[in-house]
Structures are given as C-alpha cells and as structure tokens.
## 1
Amino acid sequence: MKKKLLVALLIGAVGITSLTGCKASPDASPEGEQQTEQGSGEETEQETGEVQNTGDAIRIVNGKIEIDRQLKAFAESYKERTGQEVIIESLGGGVDIGGAIKGYLAAGNMPDIFVFGGEGEYEVWKEHMEDLSDEPWVAETEFAFVGGDGQVVGFPYALEGYGITYNADILEAAGVDPADLTNAAAYKEAFEKIDSMKDELGIDAVASVAAEAGEMFWSTGNHIFGYYLSLGLDRNDDTYIDLLRGGEVDEERLGMFADFTKMLFEYSDPSVLVSGTYDDQLALWAQGKTAFVTQGNWIDPSLPDYGVEFATGIAPLAFLEEDTKGVLVDSPSWWAVYNESQNIQAAKDFLNDLVFSDEGQEALIKEAGMISPFTVSDVEPSTPLAANIKTYVDSGDTYAWDWVKMPEGIAQNSLGVVFELYAKDELTKDEFIEMMGNALAEYVAN
Amino acid sequence: MSKKKVFSIAEIILGIIITVVTLYLNFMGSDHSMRGWFLIVGLALILLGLYMLPSERHNQIVNFLFLLPLVLTFLVTVLIPFALGVFYSFTDWTGVSYTEFIGFDNYIEMFRSQDYVYSFFITLIFTILNMIFVNIIAFLLALLATSKVKGRNFYRAAFFLPNLIGGIVLGYVWQFIFNKVLTEIGPGYMSMLTDPNLALLAILIVSAWQYAGYIMMIYVTGLQSVPRDILEASEVDGANKWTTLMKIKLPMIANTFTVCIFLTLVNSFKQFDLNLAITNGAPSRIVGGKPIMSTEFMALNIYKTAIAKNRYALGQTKAVVFFILLAIVSLTQVYISKKKEVEM
Amino acid sequence: MGEKRRFSNYILEIIGIIISIIILLPFVLVIFNSAKKSAEIVISPITPPEKWSQLFINMKNVINNANFNYWRAFFSSLFITGVSLALIALFASMAAWVLVRNKTKWSNVIFMLFVAAMVIPFQVVMLPLISTFRTISQFTGINMLSSYKGIIFAYLGFGGSLSIFILHGFIKGIPYELEEAAWIDGCSPEKTFFLVVFPLLKPIHMTILILNGIWIWNDYLLPSLMLGLNGKIRTLPVAVSSFVGSYVKQWDLILTAAFLAMIPIIILFIFAQKQIIEGMVEGSIK
C-alpha cells in the first residue's frame, strides 16, 4: 500500500498522468505499458483486442492455422448465443508455436487458452496449466491429456489419424484389396503388383513420399517413425517410447521398420522423395499419379482443390510380419487453460460448449473436417478420410501417437536427416539402424 | 540565483527523486506497470535540468548530452553484450542464466564436434570461392560498364539492383528457381539443392548474382579515378587496350582491389540470410558415420546451435571464435593498407 | 579503325544485354509467377501468366492473409527504418561533432571504441543482447524486446559505429573558421551546431541514410530475434519468412509476398538510383 501511495504522489507531482489514470493502473497487468506503446504505432483491428486479456474477451492461441476460419466462425456464434467474446489467434504450422507462447508469457501477454503439443511441452508449461479434471467433458473422452500428477490439463479438440492413404480406384483396378494391407508381406506383394501395372494404371510411381529433411522432417521423423514406436501396441503401452527416451532402440523391430521404409522409398517418385514439399507430395497423389501417399486425414480439406473424385481410405503402415489392423490416431495437440488467467471460468465454459453444443461439434467436425474425440458427439464427419478414421476409432483399432512424447525437436534436428540420407540411398539398412541408434542416443544425452 | 537556475535545479532534484524512487521500487521487485515510464521521465527531467542549468560548464554539459544517446545505445547493444558474450562462453549459460564457470569446456566440445569443424571448412571454402567469383565477375562487369558501350547507366543500375533486396526474400525466390524452374529443364532432372556440392554451388551463384553488382560499382569508381591524361598519353604511345589495362589501369587501382577483396572476404564469411533462405544447411552428407548439414556456414551454425538446439553457451563460444577469425582478417586488411600507403 | 570500334561496341552491347537479362530474369520470374495460380506454377513456371488479373487476386490474398499481414508489416518496417534513420543521423552527427572538436583523451578513446566495434559481427553479440534487453525489461518495466522503442534503440547502437566514423571524417574537413564566427557572435555550442554545422552535413547525411536504410530495411536476424517471428510487430523480411515457414509451401502466395516486399525498394531505386549507388559505394570505401 505504501508503494502505491508513493507512486500516486509521484504521478501527482510530475503531472504526466491524472490521478484517475493512476487508480486504474495498480491493477493493470504489465500490458498497460505495451498498450501505450501500441498507441504510437500502427496497430489495428484484432491486435488491440489481443492485448486486453484483462478484459472480458477470452483469447485462444490455436496451433492449427487450417481451422482458423472455422474457429472464428464458431467464436462469432458463441458470442451471439452467450454474449461472451472469444478471440482466436491462429499460428501457422511451421512456426515455432511453443516459442511464440513463451514470448507471450515473458511479455505478460498470455492467452487464456493455449495450445501445447505433448509431453515435452507439458514439462515446460505444467506450472501454468489449470487443472481441468472436474470438467464435464473429461468423462466423454479417452484422449484428454493427463499430466504426470494425474491431473487432466489438456483438452483434446479433435482427433487425427494417419497411415498410408490410398487411391481406392487405383487399388481396385490393380486388384489389390486395401483391407489386406495389414502386414509387410502383403504390402510387398501389392507394391510389386501395382509397380508392374504402372502403364495400365496411368501412374508415375506407386507411392508419393517426401523425405527431404528441411521441410518434411515431420512426415518422416515424426509420422512414419511414429509407426515404429506404436504399431501393434495398446494405447497405454510405452515400451518403445520408453526405450527411446533412454536413448535406445529395439534393433530387430527397427530392422523390420527399415526394410519397410526402404520399400516405401524405392517405390516412390524419386524427385518428390528427395526434394518435394508437402504440396508436391500431395499434388502428385491427388492428381492420380500415385496409388499411395504417406499423409493422414488432414489432407481432406485440400482434396477439392485438386478436384479429387476417386474414393480414398487410410491403411496402416504395417511393417511387421504379423497382422496389425489399426492406424495411429490421437489428438495432435491439446488446449490448456492458463491458470493465472482472469477468465478461467469463461474459458472452461467455452470448452464445454465446444463439446456439448451442437454448434461446437458441427464447427469442428462438419466445418473443419475433423474427428470428434468425444463419445457424446453424434455428428458424423462428412469428409472421406475423417470418416474413414472414424471407423477405426469406432472399432477400437487405433494406436497412440507415442511420437509426441519424443524429446522436443528431435525429428527436426536429428531424425529427419537420417531418413533423408536413407531415401537418397546413401545408407544401407544396417547403416540406417546404426545411425538412427546413434542419433537418438546422442540427442537424448544432450 | 536567477529564476532559471532555481527552476532547473528543482527539475534536476525532482528527476533524481523520481529516478531513485523508481529504482528502489525496481530493486524491491515491483511490477507496477507505469514504473518504466517513471524511470524515463525521471531521467529525462535530470537531463533537461542539466541542459537548462545556467553554468560556466555549459559547454561540457552540452558535449556530454550530445554524446549520450549514441554512447548509451552503443554501450547497451554492443559493448556490454560483447563483454558478456565472451564471459558466457566460459560458463554453462542457458540463454537466461548460468550456474557455473566451466573454463574452456565449451571450446573443447566445440572443436571436438564434427558439425562445427565441418562448418568451419565449408565456410572457408565458400568464402574463398565466393571472393574469387564475385571479384572476377564484378571486375569484368566494371570494364563493361566503363567502356564506351551504349546504355552504360542502365547496365549499372540493372547489375546493382539485386543488391538492394534483402537476402531473405531473394533466397526464397532462388529456392523457387532451383527447385521449381531449373528442374523443368529436363525430365528426371533433380534440384541442385538436393546434392551437397551442387547446393554449395547454388549458394555461390546466388551470392555472385546478388553481390557482384555492388562490387562492380566500387571497381567502376576506381577505374574512373584513373586520370584521363595518362590514358590518353598511352593511347598516343600506341598502346592497345590490353596493354593499357594491364600496365596502367590495374596497377593504378590496386587499392580498390584490396578494398573489394577484403569486403567480399568479410561479407562471404558472415553470409547468413541467403544460407538460411536457400538451403537452411541442407542437404545432409555423411562425414565419419554421422549426418552433417552440408551447407551450414558458421553464422547459421551459431544460430542453430543456440536457437534451434537450445545450447546457448556452445553457440556463444562458436560466436566468439567467429569474431576472432573476423578480427584477424580485418587487422590483416588494415596492415596491408597501411603498408601500401607507406610504399606509395 | 572506326569500323572495328563500332563492331566491338556491338559485341559489348550484346554482351551487356545478355547479362542484364540473366541478372533481371529472377525478377521477371517473380512477376510472372505472382500472377499465376498454384497449379499453373506447377505446370509451367517459366511462361508468362495466362491472365495478369490473377496478380491482383494473389496480391489481395497475400495482403489479407492473417499470417502475412502486408500493410502492418510494411508500416512497421517503414516506422522502424524511418525513426532509426532520423535518430542515427541526428545523434551520430552530434556525437561525431563533439568527438572532432574536443580533442581529449576521452574523446579519442570513445572514437576508437566506435571504430574498433565495426569489426564485431552481429553473431557474437546477438545472444547476450537478447538476454541483456530481457533483463532490462524485467528490471525497469520498459519493454525493450517486442517494442518499437527497443528495436530502434538497438539500431541506434549498431548503426552508430559506421555513421560516427563516416561523419568524423567529414566534419574534420569542415573549416573551423565557420564555427568560430558563430562563437564570436556569442552562439551557444548547441546553437552553433544546429545552425552552422548541421546544415553542412547534408551531403554526408545522404550517404548515412542510404547505408543504414538499406541495411535496416532488409535486416532479418535482429528483428526476428527481438520481435519474434510471430510477434505483434513484424518487419517485412520477418513477415515473409514466417509466411514461408508454414507447412504448406504455396509458391503462388510466397512469390507474391516476395514481389510485394521488393516493390517499395525497387520504386525507391528507380527514383533515387544515383544517390543510392553513390551512397553505398562511398560507404564501403571509407
């Protein structure tokens, strides 16, 4: 109190601010300073809202730029229904979202709800996460993020699934039944068969895979490698991810994975494989020039851009000898509520509305083309791959995304390159296994 | 005491009070939102009071006030971080704090790590090749731009233009050219950026493209400074163009060569923007059984070590060595120019 | 002789035209492909666009794109560059003048420090710089990292060395008699400076503005570290880079973004070609 009095006296003495300004300021967060700053600059529209997280609007930092429009539309309808304003701030995929949020924290500009990607980021943020265990939606899902202490802290806004996505028309023409693609031998046979019929089928290559490390590390180092970690395991079985976190690999399993990966690479379009971007990879497949593409249901919204009319589905990257029927499905990231937010209750209400209101589920599933993690939802996905993944979810044939528990940045800084070299044929299978092992051990050690 | 004096002294005292109180609050860990402005106001009042104070030492006060802005910014942005940077290279600094002094451990680790040694050599190779390419091209362009050809001024402007656009933007444009345009040349033609050696060549091409026009203009200035009467005299003596160039022009612009060579040396060595935007270090190559980014120059290597891999102390150590190497190059330049001056 | 000269001039002209085409080709490709849809680029990246009107559609898309936000980035760049330049020109002139006219041990030391610091590469100070600024922000409550004042402060620090060096050389060449006359008339030192010396510095200010202007406008590393790739304030190079950084590489939009980022400088260059070239060359030789 003494300090406040001093400050008030000072302001009076200097006369730069009126006393009313002072009364408002002791409660203000450090952004008071930034706001004045912004007044001098060229700030417009949403930004002025962004900094006012002391106000009534709740602010969400979303990590999926693809669903920005849909979330904003939902925020509009939410405001109409409840009067609560919601500001959606979407950050693009390639940018360092964790870093951006760290910046917000440092600047005292934390959003009320923020995205986080998994265990690594949980460790960074756990001090700042509100316990959501008592929220009604928790009972409706098995995909919530549960922290080390058993508290539910992550809201699963959607599910995503991936494996190897196929062009069902091509498979049919080649006489391959996608339902058979559940083990390595079946894949080998199918790939050889399709490869021998390339001209008849009018395709350039069997598969569209992209392994360039700089931009596609997430596809190889996270997604494809994720199959090594999770394929065939119960959702809560952590065998291989635990091994990895200890800096070790199962060489036999990795060997089978290496054989399968090699086959994938050999039957892919060589140019896209070593230098293609996500766009190139997708375009090749979407134009009907390959039978397979190693992406998941997030490509749904892009399909109309290419005028895709063929039937599609997703099969597992079944690299083992025995049958594995499931694909990797999980919440790609979670939303956490900032525990020092002024609007904790409003944020919680918003999340519940997203789950329990028709508008909420419509927005996420129908509009954004995602898959609901909540059993209460009876809205069916209308996009083909999401619908396909939903059948895996419904039948319980899913494996967890254990790769999100890998050390932060490992795919980008370490594993992606090994895949690239393997794709360029600069590594033999044994060298690949050895280099993977070394890369992991070294990364974990640092 | 004049009114003015009283007023300015009062101002100074008020300023001091505000500053001291704000500093006190800061030390007490206050996070009052206006404290930043108080400090600024307090300091501004002191300075203003000092300026208005009628005094015999007014001249010195003005000198101080005139020096203050740049000396202060320079101190805070360059000198203090530099000193801290050298210090941090001997600690386990995390970018925020450090816990202990670890001597030369960072330096030892750095010289032992393959990626750094590789980066050092690839930077050296790039620097030397780039210096040669850029200077040869720039000099030939300068000869063209100082010849009697029509439209000289247009050429100068056209050649100079790439230099004005930022390396980041240009880098992305060229990434497009290498990955999308040049691959159109023939079927099955792979992008240059997928091969370690060709990727280096690609950066060399872009660097020469961007930089040669600038160096050209320095040569142009040099060539134009060759006195006309000497050239005319040699023409009268019947010397042909080649002899004039070799015997008169080249020796007369030796200084320009020194300037250009060192300028390109230093700038090639510091190359970052193009490196980041064109290849970002890719593709990788295998060195001693380990994957290594084949085109990661030192500046990018420092950046990635600290920012992407979150190893600030190690990155800072690399930066200190980077500085020492650059300082050696610059000192050599000073030495050579001094020697030349003496000879002349 | 005349024949031969004309012939060799023709050859030179042809060479000049060819080189100009090669050098300008990337710009042409940017313009061509900025006026294409993504699919059109994939099919034929070299040909002129089918419909130039697509250029405006792409420009509109990029300008309205939440991840790029062209106008905000443009005005941020303009504001940062403009204010930094004005302050560098003013403060560096003041400092250089004091350093030239007051020959003391201290002024020599300060000048030598500024000159010596020109050797210091940004890389060696960038990491501690960020942490120093962060500490200052936390301690004083003055936001130095993601604010205009912070980055302008930093540009003053980094731009000061070279500017003082160049101005120092120039002011030394101004005859002292001019100032003496003002002194005798009873002018205070600050008046002498602003009324007599400062106007004389106009030609060298041009050099300083151009040298610092091009650098600050194009600078990537400092703003990306200080302001962040997704901060509230972003300069054009940072905005382009963060735009490219998204997962999906939409070359049509990226090239349009590049096009939009180049345009201001190219327009400036067309109008002030001579001054820009001279300024940059002069700065390098000194």
## 2
Amino acid sequence: MALIGELVVQGVQMTLVLLLAPLLTGIVRTLKSRAIGKAGPPPLQPYRELLRLIRKEPVVAEGASWLFRAAPYLIFAGIWVAAALVPTFASGLLFSWSADLIAIVALLGSARFFLALAGLDVGTSFGGIGSSREMMIASLAEPATIMIVFTIALIVGSTQLSSISAYTASEEIGLRVSLALSLVALLMVAIAENGRIPIDNPATHLELTMVHEAMVLEYSGRHLALIELAASLKLVLYVSLIACIFVPWGMAPPGAGLGAYAVGLASYLGKLLAGGVVLALFEMSIAKMRVFRYAEFLGAALMLGLLGTLLAFVSRSL
Amino acid sequence: MPLTVALYGVLGLAIVAVAGAVTQRGALGRPLVYGLSAAISATLLAAGLDALLGALAPETATLPLGLPWLGARFRLDALSALFLAVVNLGALAASLYAVGYGRHEHEPARVLPFYPAFLAGMNLVVLAADAFTFLLSWETMSLASWALVMAHHREEGNARAGYVYLVMASFGTLALLLAFGLLAGAEGGYAFDGIRNVEHAPAVKALVLILVLVGAGSKAGLVPLHAWLPLAHPAAPSHVSALMSGVMTKVAVYGFVRIVFDLLGPPVWWWSVVVLLLGGVTAVLGLLYALMERDLKRLLAYSTVENVGIVFIGLGLALAFRANKLDWAAALALTAALFHVLNHTLFKSLLFFGAGAVLAATGQRNMERLGGLIHRMPKTALAFLVGAAAISALPPLNGFVSEWLTFQAVLVSPQLPQWGLKFLVPAVGAMLALSAALAATCFVRAFGIAFLGRPRSPEAAGATETDRWSLGAMFAFAALCVLAGVLPGHVIDALSPAVVSLAGARMPVQAEVPWWSIVPIAESRSSYNGLLVFAFSAISGLLAAALIRGFATRRFRRAPAWDCGFPDPRPETQYTADSFAQPIRRVFGTHVFAARERVDMPAPGDTRPGRFRARVHDLVWDRVYAPVAKAVEYGARRLNPLQALTIRRYLSLVFFSLILMLAVLAIWR
Amino acid sequence: MGKIEFDIAHLVAGGLVLVSLLLLYQDRMFALLRFFAGHAVVLSLAVAWQALIQDKPELYITAAIALAFKGVVIPLALYRIVVRLGIHRELEPVVGVGLTMLAGIGLIGLALVVILPLTSAADPYAREDLAFALSVVLLGLLMMITRRNAVSQVVGFMSIENGLILAATGAKGMPLVVEISVAFSILIAFIVIGIFLFRIRERFDTVDVGALDSARAEGERRR
C-alpha cells in the first residue's frame, strides 16, 4: 500500500514538472514584456506553440542522419528523468536514490551531448557555432557545479537530494557563508546552463551571438516541440533544484498525509513563481555579454564555489 | 591451476610468434596468427577470471629460466588475475578485430611475428614475481611494441615516433631498474616476497616512488612524460594502437600499483600529494591537447593520457586514505581507479577500432578530410558513438560510474587530517570535473566532425562499411560498455578481491543492494542506479515517441537545409574541427599552449583572400624535451673529437682514467 | 559564544574575503571604488558585530570610523580625483583576471592552511578570524602587484589595512589608541599616495606606474 502511495507521488511529480514547464517559460516571457512596457504574450502561449508544433509535419534537412531524428527524444528523455528525480513538492521520492546530485548533473550532460551532436549533423555553419559554444559553456560550468556539490556535501555530508533538503530544512543548519556563496554560484551556473541573459538570449534569431537557437536551427515540427519542451523542463529543474537545496521549507516529508502534500504543492508553486519573477527582473536589468567574457563569468562562479568549499572547511574545524 | 594455464598460454603465444615469422609470406599467416592469438587470449581471460572470481589463493611457480641461480618466479594473486583478465580482454577483441582489419595490412611481415610477442610480454609482466623476470618481460613488451610502431616506418613521422618511443622506453626501464635495485637492497633479494619483507628507510621509499612514477608513469603517459605516447600509439596499425592505448598503459598502471601499493609497504601521506597533482594535471592537459588535435588517432592517444590521469587521481586518493588508516575509503578510491582501468580498456579499444575502420575505409586520419561517415558506415558510427558517449562519462554508460566513484572518494577527503590534502583534494576534484566536461567536448568534436555533417573529401564520400570481424569486436565492446554501466555493482564486487589484497578492506557488497543500485558508503549519503536511469530514460523516450507519433503526426518531409536562409552546398562551409575547438583555444590556449592568432584582413577593395592563422605550441616539448635534446646534442658534439685520436692519446686517456679511479678508491677507503 | 553568534561572525568575515576577491575581478575604475566602499561597509559590520558579542562599546567607534571614513570619504575623494584628473576609466591588469582569481583562491587556501593548524589551541572564532584577516591582507598585496594603475594600488593598500583591523578586532579587542594610530598612518599614506598620483600625472600624463620605471631607466641611461 505504501509502495503504491509512493509510486503515485513519483508519478504526480513526473507529470507535474512536465505540465508546469511551459507555464514557467510563459510567465517569464510575459513578465519581461510587461516590465519593459510591452503587452507581451499571455503566459499560456508556450502551450499553444507546443501543441501546434507537435501537430505540424517536421521538415528534415537533406543529408540529416538518423541521429538528427532520434536526438530530440534522447534529449527530452534525459532531461525529463533528471527533472523527475529532483524533489519538488515532496521529498523522499520513490526513485530519488537512483541518482544523486552528481548523477543528475551528468544526466543533463548526456542530453547536452546529443543536442550538440544534432547541431553538427546537418553540416551547417550555424549548427556548428552553436554546438561549439554550448560545449565550451558546459565545460566551464561543470567544474563550478562540482565545487557547489562539494560545498553542499561538505556541510550536509551527502549528495543525495532528499538528505540535503532534510538537512537544510532542519534547525542545525544555521547561517553559512559557504551556502550563500554556493547559492550565488549555482544561480550563475543555472543562468549559463539555461542559456539566459547575459550568456545567451532565448529570444534571439539570426544573430551571430546565439547559442541554443543556433544548434536547433534546423529543427521543426514535433522535433522542435520536444526540444523546446526539454529546454523549459531544464529551467524548471534548475528552479526546483535551487528551491530544494536552499529553500526546502514547505516540502511534504515522506509518507505525509494529503494536507501536507497540498501545502507542499502550494509552496512549490509559490517558489516557481518567485523564481520566474526574479529571473525576469534579472534578465530585464542586464545586457548580454560578449562571447569571450563567458569564461570570466563562469570562472567567477568556479571561484565562488572554491571559496565556498574553503570557507566550509573553516567553519567545520570548530 | 590458472597460473599453469597462463604460463602455457604465454608459451603458446611465443610459438605463434615464431609461426608468424615463418608463415608470413603465405595467405595463411593472418588468420592463423590472429585466430590462435584470439584463442589463447580467450583461454588466458578465462584463467584470469577464474582466479579473480573464484577468490583462489595466490599461486606461485618457479621456472628454471633466466639467471641460473635465480630461476624465473611467477605468481598469480588477485591483482595479477584482475590485470591478466583486463589484458586478455583487450587482446581477445584486438585479435578478432585484426582477423578482418589485417587484410588492409600491406606489410604483414612486420606485424605478424611481433603481435603475439607483444601479447606474451604484457602477460608476463602481470605474472612476474621477481624483479628480473618483471624487467625482462617489461622490456619484451616495450621492444615488441616498438617493432610494431615501426611497422610502417616509411610513412612520414613514424621513424621519429619510433625513435622518441625507444628513447623514452629505455629511460623508463632504467628508472624501474634503479627502483628495483633500491628495493632489493644490499642483499640483492630480487624476488617480490623478499622485497615485501624488507623494511626500507623513508628516504629510499621516497626515491623508489619517484623512480616508479618516472618508469611506470612514462609508459602510462603521465604529463610531462607523455610526449612519446601521441606519436607512437597512432603510428602502429590500428589494432596495435588499441592494444597500446587500451592495454599497455594498464600494464604500466599495474607496475605502479604492484610496486607502490604492494612492495613498498605503508605509504606516507605526502606521496599522495605528488600522485594527485600529477594525475590532475595529466587529466586536464591530456584533453586540452586532444582538443587541439586534427588527427583522429592522435586525438584518441591524447585522450588516453587524460584517462591515465583519472586513474592516477584514484590511486593518489587511495594512497592518501591508506596513509591515514582510512581503509574503507582507500578501498573506495582504489575500486574507482581499477574500475576506470577496465572501462578505459573497453572504450578506448573500441574507439581505436572505429578509427581503424575509418582509416581503412577512407585512408584518412585527418578529421578535416572526413565527415558524413554515419551515412556510409552506419554500424561503425553507432559503435563509435557508444564509445564516445562512454568515454565522455555520460550516464548510464560505464565511464560515468568510475568517475562517479572517484567523486565519491573525493567527497570523503574532509576526513583526512592533513590540511594540505583537505584543500588539495577538492581542487583536484574540480580538475576531474573539468576534464570530464572537456572529454564531452572533445568527443562531440571527434564524432561530430568525422561522422556527422557532409563529406569533406572524395575519400570520405566513397567510404564503405567495414568487415564483420571488426564490427563484431566493436559491438562486443560497445555492449560491454553498456553492461558495465548498467550493472556496475557486479563489476565492483568482481574487483573486490584485488582491492582487499591492496587496501586491506573492500567496498560494501553491492550484489545485495535492492534494485542493483550501487551504494559506496551509505544510502543516505549517495547512491546511483545505472539500470533504473537507463530504464527510465528508455521508457520516457519511447513513451514520448509513441505518444507523439501515435496521436499527432508520424510523417516527415525532406527539404534543403535552412541555415538561416543562407545555405551553402559546398562542404567547406561546414564547421571544422579547428573552428569547433576555437572557443576552448581562446579560453585555455594563451596560457597552456602559448596560442597566438593572427588575422590578415585585406583592405577594402583588395581582392586577395583574408587569412587567419592560429599557432599552438606544445610547451612541455619546448621547455623540457627540446632543451634536453639540445644539451645531449651539444655534449655529443663536444665528445665527437674523441673518436679521432692517435693511439698514444687513447692510451694516455685509459691510463689517466685508471689513475683517477685508483685515487678515488684511495680517498674513499 | 553561541552557535548563531559564531555563524554571523563567520558570515561577515567570510563576506569580507569575498569582497576582497571581487575587488580583484573588477576592470572598471568606478566599480572598483564602489566595491572598495562595500569592503569598508562589510568590515564595519564585522567590527560592530564583534562589539556586540564581545560587549566592548569602544569597538563601535572603530566600526563607525571604518564606515564613515573608508566607506564614504575616501571612495568619494578618489572618485573626485579620478574625475578631475580624467584618469583612464579601465583598469589594465598585468596578469589576466582568471589567473589572478585563481591565484587569489590559492592564497586564501594558503592562509587557511598556515593559520588553522598553528592556532589550534586558540578559541575557534579568533583562529578563523586570523585566517580570514591573513587572506584579506594577501589578496590586497596580490591586487597591488597585479594592477598597473595607481588608483587600484591605493585601493589594494587600503584593503590590506582593512584586513589588519579585522585581525585586531577578532583577537579580543585592541586598544582604540592603536586603532586610531593605524587609521592615522593610513591617512598619511593616503595623502602621500594622493600627492604621488598628482605628481605622476603632472609629469607623465598617465597614472600607469610603468611610466615611472621607464623614466628611471631613461635617467640611468643619461647618466
């Protein structure tokens, strides 16, 4: 009986992230437009776009291989599984132990690997430029991510997301400068990984500065829909990850009653909304960077992560 | 029993080598040599697995070979059994691959006799139980592989590769010889049992460590001793490249582990600092070199350097934990290192097989002349893709598991008492993460440029799929890559006898963990389940495909590429390997390679083409090897006149040398 | 000292190290001055928190001096100098920003490795405070040697002084007299360097310290 309950929670979680993903993207777009005085699309617009794209017949470039057509499914699957393993409204998911924080980051890496290959498959220069830059950003972001994981593991003594959220929600955590540093570093990594301003502009087309859009330039129809959905899912994943590690309050503990799940769900929706608002305001108030300043940006994230680790050692030596 | 089988197997390989020398002219030579090598390797693999999994007691044997009063001692314990299995796994696949690939060999007489000798040398190294046999086998391995590197000695650059390899190999053997001399001490106990029982002074132990790092490290490819590796490995025929990269570097790792973990006694904590730093630097630099490389096989060789770095990071962690009596953590780090040894044998052999197939089909190793091979060689492309994903440490494949285990070992480092190690280990962890991410970049580049896109040369456009034997070897290893990634718990348990013999502890038994997860320390701390990740990804991908194709549309249409409205049909307009690596070169190149870019832009109205030049330097070569070579040359030139003296002068030279030695003796005594 | 008191002290002192590191990251003159003001503000917070938990009211004065003088007056003065002299607004590092930051992290690690084992007998706050203070001092020195610009050298020098104050307050208080004398000496140093700034500017039309070296070389050649 308990197993069925847990299965249901896990299933709800998987569906929830999938259903909420376009909404978050839509909210961010609407807020950004409103904040700069435009009417902007309604928040539900991404759903309409996805439905239309799914129904349309995709146009595949001549000379594209099977990899080009399989990649959207692989990318979507990798990111969806990763997103399903990050606790959102309830901790202690049935399968959350099948991948810890490092494995979740690596799963996103698998999705990125195939996305970059898909960018190279048709043999156009735009696809190549996108793949090359995406891999550069990833190779700079990954050490920073690992340092953040170290800092957290140093304080919590675990890389398991359920254990981490349980610890940060408890009283013994106190105020930690290391956690603050890793929060900032994680925000920077999240911005880079999701291709948001100042690293990449998700609204741009026909510009030499684009990264993600350049890679998926040849995609259309259902393939594009899957990739766009996967990108939205990744954004939800990062917001959930930050919420789960740094603001875990309100999450339903394992085996809780329906009331606790309702509270968990409400607080999760609140956190997502807050994340969307913050992201929109941040993107609105900052300009895009030159490509070769990415290294400095992500290097700073790495430095913050390293500093967090060093400082965590100091406070542990009490 | 397995030891006897193994020794007869080595004898068999020696006979096959002779047979190879005899039958080289006939058409029978190739299938005979490679078929028999494969059969013997399979037997030896079974013997190794039997000794490892059966947890048999160590076996010893003494043969009346070599020095008359010493004999040759052999021993098969858990560590030897593990490496025996790894060596012969690689050898089996390489032999099968060569049955097909060997058809493209235009000089079989230069390959067939040495191939079995090379295998025999590697097998003997892991079985040897005294310093004399060990060094003799090590030298056999080096010389046989050198002969194989020189098989195509008329091709450009190969002669230099062989020369550099020979120099470095002799240098490495010299270092090992000195190390064993120090270990044996004044009594000259050259048997490993004798060495184990002697208590060495700390300074001697430190010196031995350095010498072993030089000796075994140069064979494994540790920076800065890696210089020969990217020259020599690609120069050999591809199945030999696979053996050299996938297997011979593992034999070097075995040499390091055998001496440092087994013979040298309890470690001191600062040893680990040296090993960790070397490992971290090797991991990052190896990949940065690989990213600058256009030659597919040299790229793979540089990536071998990186993977050796990862193995040494694991070994360094194990040393640190063992020096501080944290045996369970040492077991974790050592398991990670040995797991990576197995993984690297699997995917690097696979990738070299793939590169060999490409080379045979197109005659090209330069990636800038390849492209679009996924259409012409779909099966090779699939196998290469699995290898590329595995080496990039992507879940749910095997490369990720060993890197994940290494990260778990890194996360134990706060329990170390030394402050220096506490800070160093996370920094090395960041280097490991950087190298993992760079590996993904490197193999997206390798696969994407060589197999995807449009053909960049007529040879690439006219390629045909490779033969069945080669495909069989590739797909067997691709399947093993998936299997070891999906069921890592079984591999960890299989490695445990070797780990116990070195670390005095083992990781928790993984076979009893529900759902076949792996749990290195405790489930509340970290766990990973390759099987479930694989199953979930497969299910969700298939589910999405079924839903969309079932309820929406399953048709698609072909049209010219869009490319933002400016498609250009010429294949030269594609992204090249160099342009793909350009962002990385910009970020790391100025410091690591002293990279310089020069743009020559014609003035408006001028019709000459604009030019862009990027230069990278191998700073290790420029700063370390070139000065040494110059110094040797200078010395040789100064000594040259000594060759043309009169008899009287020679006699006086001899006379004064004699007087000098007598004087030295008089002063010292 | 209770847990939460320690945590806040740790947070603020760690924050000071972070701001020191961020000073290294700046490549614009005015951003550098703003961050230097921030450095002083964080310092005054740290000192004020020490005053509260050690129950030493005189430390509030130190905090107030740091806030008013180094948080407001000096940055404003430097700002005016930069504007009046029309100094180039971009800072040219001698070594790249990435390498400098890496070196900075290395220095922090070094400071921790040196201080923590040495002071294992001291009370936890004091030793951590000393480690952080040494990091701030080393970062200030690093800034002085990796930046060509005289203004950033002044800023680096004053951030060293901030580190010294952090050390002094954490180690269970220092008499105010000493604090004033330290501040005073810094003031003098500031004036000296200020004049020095004017002088280079008058003489060579730049505040690049490298100009001094070439002038000296020229002088020697003439001799």
